[in-house]
Write a structure and sequence with these properties.
The structure is a single chain. The chain has 294 residues and is mostly helical. It has a single domain, classed as ABC transporter involved in vitamin B12 uptake, BtuC, CATH 1.10.3470. The strands form two sheets. A two-stranded antiparallel ribbon has the order 1-2. A two-stranded antiparallel sheet has the order 3-4. Helix 1 packs parallel to helix 5, helix 1 crosses helix 9 and helix 5 packs across helix 6.
Length: 294
Amino acid sequence: MTTIFGYPLPVVLGQLVLGFVNGSFYALLSLGLAVIFGLLRVVNFAHGAFYMLGGFVAHLLLIWFGVNYWGALILAPLIVGALGVGVERALLRHLYTLDPLYGLLLTFGLAMMFEGFMQQQFGSSGITYPVPAALTGFYKLGFMVLPIYRAWVIVASLTVCFLVWILIEKTKLGATLRAATENASLTQAFGINVPVMVTLTYGAGVALAALAGVLAAPITQVSPHMGTSLVVVVFAVVVIGGMGSIFGSIISGLMLGFVEGLTKVVYPEASTTVIFVIMAIVLLIRPTGLFGRD
């Protein structure tokens, strides 16, 4: 039997596919962070909490109103995005002229508040969210059995990442957003309402986190702490790709998913730390990240 690093080829390929699934989550979550930091210069430490809220909103829509998974994919990001708009208008907009540390501390406090409230209401144990009937079953790949839902997560995440990248980098709206971050006063002189644009940008970044939460709900149980550990990894992904780099966040998220999957085969004990080791190396060699700018 063919081996890689002394391990059977099917085992290695299986872990790489699972790493690709994780990498698609990393890419989607880090995309929202990159959008918010790149356009608002806010280190949104509440990103994991909004991811968690996306899963909970999907669950509540199901049990309270009978809204199925497909409806939740649309409604949950809109609801959580609207919450993000309220947070930006009520709190964050007062901090843009201050040191970015204040924004980090504020969003960290918000994350603690959201998690504490959801834990008080629903407890710490996870809540199962059903896989939609259309996505049940599995594919036989020869070297592994891949659930259809996990394949759907890959396709959905990469599609959203690609569309957002096109929107930011290749459209007139994206050019306007980038101009507003470079010189807000000049952009506003051309009749563009920069404060509204900033608010909607934050809401959109939060909505991306909520969308990832809905996609994750059938895989990982919905719980108040589902975003706590994940957001630390996603921050590392964003730093490696380059703070504010949309393309860098997507590529580094997918790449690190593969690396993590391979590490689980070669040296499982290091699978939880390999991303942070890579981050340290990248920062030593290129402090702005792989795709970041000075």
